[in-house]
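hey all, quick one before standup. I had two proteins in the batch that finished overnight and I want to keep them in one place so we stop losing track of which output belongs to which input. First protein below, input sequence then structure tokens straight from the run.
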Amino acid sequence: MDDADAAIQAGGRRVAAGRAAHWARSGLRLYRRQPGAWLACSATLCSVLALAAAVPLPFLPALHVLTPALSAGLVLACSAVEAGGRAHPLQIFEGIRRASGPLLALGVFALLADLLAQAAVAACLGSWQGASAVGGISKVALSLRVVFCAPALLALWFAPALVLLNRLSAPAALRASLLAGVRSPLAVGLHAAWALGLVALAAAPSWLRTPTGAALPFAPVWTTVLMSAVTPWLAGSVYAASRDIFGRPARPSRPSLRS
């Protein structure tokens, strides 16, 4: 293992809190280069995830397992656009083609982390209904669930990019991503807070209610449209952050996994 590899697996370089704003601006610049192509990519991603969420798989929710693998395709699209190429919808599936094993392993990790978070919330509130309800006590449950998921979210933040571009195995990528948050807590924390806030705003039609308490008309459609609009910006910012913290790999096109 050379010095660059050791630095990556140790969590990359420390960065100042102000880098979070730079990452957001960098993501927006990538988005503005090819807005139409990016919208096609994100619409494909959101459509596939929406279909996965609708599949009744009680013991293996497809949404958790597929999200890191499919979002990794956006990492490759960011790399292509930065190099002067074009983003296209089929790149969403390129990550699975190149590194299906470690990327799906990240998805399994995400699933297990969420199940453990639900169990912890249930233990705190005294019932599984409290962990999954959507009204009343559910606000407390949701807040606790986010808190319990925070370490796993931090471990997953850069993991898909590290698997594809820095050629790490799934456990090494999770560890490096987690350590990056520990080494640069303000920068990564501010970036995560901005990204999650943007996602919450995009998802607003799904939780807003009319004065009579009814759901907004066509709420799922509006949510999908808004999520498709902000996803390229988010992906570009995560890509920029990963390059800033972990550096640019010498040959990013073909991952050769190492532990």
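OK second protein, same deal, sequence then tokens:
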Amino acid sequence: MTTTFASPSALETAGAPLHGAHPVIEIEKVAKSYSMGELVVHALRGVSLTIERGDFVAVMGASGSGKSTLMNIVGCLDVPTRGYYHLDGVDVRTLDESDLSIVRNRKIGFVFQSFNLIPRTSAVSNVELPLVYAGVRAKERQARAIAALEAVGLGSRRDHVPSEMSGGQQQRAAVARAIVTNPALILADEPTGNLDSASSDEVMGIFSRLNLEGRTVVLITHEDDVASFAKRVIRMRDGQILSDDRAVPLDGAPPRIDASGTVVTPDEQLRAKRGGVA
């Protein structure tokens, strides 16, 4: 069975958050196996996971833990061997490749380690791309792209090409591209892997502020410092969830920003928990 997005209006709203109607992610007993000659590799082994709207989740694990396979399934880039996955209320198992492409474009904003910006193309044109694929008209595309760039502090750099921007600025442009469709989920794969510590904090601060505005963020990382920005940390090993720890309530502010939206260091965070006592 194939889910059909029946009209242009449905296409326009496919990525819009449903304000609590469903969890953003519901995964139940998902397994993924790969055949390599006579060898069968079990990348995921019966993983069950629910992520509610407005959560900020870091998924951690060593190489081979299954975190990248899980991300590919969550991002509709791969399908499970067994089990089911609902994304924002949509049963992904019922979708054909055309519908999956629509879901990826409308419901998921991807951010990758390597930025994936088009060279010799301005920041605003890069950010417009998902809207081009969605058939949004040029005037609206540009207005939404500029608004997204302003949301990540790059409004003044909108006409710059990637080579004219620092690594941190390029990743901020990639975040703007991820949010321009107003997706149900921001999915980030090692988003700070190519950045220095200052740029990493800058980008993670943006994710934190986006989450504070109500956006759902899931990121894959192997860095504890990056994971410390999340409200919830899931650790994986051998294709299974090893631990699932919540640092902050679902409706709370992300732990590494203060009331003004400024990033705080772990020491400042600890002092705040102690009531300001050093």
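Flagging for whoever picks this up: The longest strand covers residues 39-51. The beta strands are 25-36, 39-51, 56-60, 82-87, 90-91, 108-112, 185-189, 217-220, 232-237, 240-246.
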